[in-house]
Structure formats: C-alpha cells, structure tokens
Amino acid sequence: MGRAMKEELISGRWGEAREKHDLWSNSRRELLFQYVIITIGAAIFGAALAMFMLPYKIAPGGVAGLVVILAHLFTWPPGILLLCFNIPIFFLGMRSLGYGFGLKSLCGTVLISVFTDLCYEVLHLQLRIDNPILVPVFGGVVMGVGLGLIIKMGGATSGSGTIARIIARYTNITHGTAILIINSIIIGLAGFAFQDADKAMYGMLSLWISSKVIDALMEGMDYARGVYIITNKTDEISRVILDNLGRGGTALKARGLYTNADREVIFCVITRKELPEITKLIKKIDPRAFTVITPVHEVLGEGFRERV
Q1: SS3 86
Q2: Each residue of 273-299: b (16+ CB within 10 Å) or e?
Q3: Does residue 290 form part of some domain?
Q4: Model-level pTM?
Q5: How many independent structural domains does the chain possess?
Q6: Is the separation of the CB atoms in 35 and 43 below 8 Å?
Q7: Are 224 and 299 in contact (CB under 8 A)?
C-alpha cells in the first residue's frame, strides 16, 4: 500500500472520529441546555405557585390546585405535597403508558416541588396585590411560562395530564374531556373548601390563561403569514413579490372547480409587517384576485430566523 493511500485512510479515519466526537459534543451541549431550561421552567412555576396561587388561595386545576387546597386546610408544605402526588402518578404513567416520560419528566417533577418549597417555605416570596383579578391573570401567565418551558424541552410534570391520558386509554373518554373533568372537579373543590365562588372562578381563569401561554410557547406566536393568491395576473403579482418585497414564492398547479380551467396559485410566506404592503400591491394589480391569508407559527428556511 502506497504512502499516499495510507495517509488518505488515516485522514479518513481521523475525520470520521472527529465527526463522531463533534456530534457527541453537540448532543451533550444540547442535552445540558435542555436540562438548564427545565430547571429555569421549574423555578418559574414554583415561584408562580408561591407568589400568586398559594397566598391568594387560587387553585389552578390539576395537582397544583389540589395542593393549594390541602396546603391551606392542613398547613402542609406545598412542595412536599406536590412530590407525594406527582411521584406515584409518574410511576403509574410509566407502567400504564410506557417509558416515554423519561428522566426529563422526573427531573421536572422533582424540581418543581423543590422550588415551590424554596420560594414559599424558605424564602417566603410574597407580592402584595390589591386588585384580586390581577392574581389569576399574572399567576396564570407566569405559571404557563414555567410549565411551557418544561414541556418544550421534552419534560412533563406528571399530574392531571398523566391521569387524563390513562383514563383516555382505558375508557371511551377523550383526553381533552378527561382533563376538563379532572380540573373542573378540583376547582369546584376549591370553591367548596374556601367557601368562595370567586376563588373557583379565578382558578378557572388562571387555568385558561396558563393553557394559552403554554400553547404560545409550544407552537410559537403567529409571526408570519401564508398567502395564497388566485389571479389571472400571475406573472405581474409574482414579479412584485420578488422585486418589491424581496420574497420568494411557489406557483402551485391548480384547477378551478367551477370553470374547470387549469391555472396557477401563488403561495408565499411573509412577515406580519409585510402583510399590508402585499395586499395593497395585489389590489392594485388585480382588484378581483382571490387572496387567502393564514397565520403561520413556524417557518424554517431562508429569509426567516429560526425560532428557539
């Protein structure tokens, strides 16, 4: 074997080893990043319980709502209560639903309990809020951010979501219906335990707000728009999209059901700021153009920033 061939083989092996090392390093960095975000999310969630839910007796549904009730009735540490409920539910979920929960979910479950007691029992974090409606609103936002970060990184916190999945698996009740039933029962118990219907309604409001925040974190805000343009002036409109907006597009082959005629439909993705300009240009070129505009939560590709 010649010297050049030996050097090439050695170089190839080193290159392959280096690529594997880079992949392993990247995966470790990514995993570390995910656990850091889960920790931050757990800290935010624990702070939300300590500053908003527990002091003002707002039960936001789920296990957290049940903990708020029991913590006030028996003065037990809320973090310990969370752990006592969530750990058995976690292992029940693993047994019934498989091992898909993983270490991240266990980490999120434990950290939420730790940070809740740290903020409530040790640091005694408190906020004086005179307007009662602000408590479930801001509490729901902060709690949703914390839980959304944990879920986005592949973790979970056991709780009512796991119970709902188990119920849906073994009954004819859907997952969404099961969650609604569980949360309604817990929020109803809060109103009964505190003898205050307002508390129950505040809990429902907080639950709704936190779910919307979680959806926003998981799916992203609709920062872009997808535009479908059906027009007889395809070339002219395509040109202004390319030249005036600096955007690309795709001409989709289509057939009109009424006319049975073949035509092209222009599809492009733009930012929200560009929406008024493109509608103005379309109207100027072809006032009779049929335009459909849809919200877009995520765009991966040239011309759009990648979302976290």
Answers
A1: helix
A2: ebeeebeebbeeebeebebeeeebeeb
A3: yes
A4: 0.72
A5: 2
A6: no
A7: yes
d(CA 191, CA 61): 12
Residue type, 291: T
Is the domain of 70 the same as that of 43?
yes
Q: How far apart are CA 227 and CA 209, in angstroms?
A: 30
**Listed residues 194, 219, 244: the one ending a domain:** 219
List, for residues 245-276, the tens digit of each pLDDT value.
888 899 999 988 888 888 899 999 998 888 88
Residue-range definition of the domain harbouring residue 207: 29-219
Exposure string of 12-49, with b = 16+ CB inside 10 Å and e = fewer, is: eeeeeeeeeeeeeeeeeeeeeebbebbbbbbbbbbbbb
Q: Is 227 helix (H, G, I), strand (E, B) or coil?
A: strand
Residues 119-167 have pLDDT tens digits of 999 999 988 898 989 999 999 999 989 988 888 887 776 677 778 777 8
Among 156, 137, 154, CA closest to 86 = 156
Residues of the chain where predicted confidence (pLDDT) is lower than 50: 4-15, 18-19, 22-23
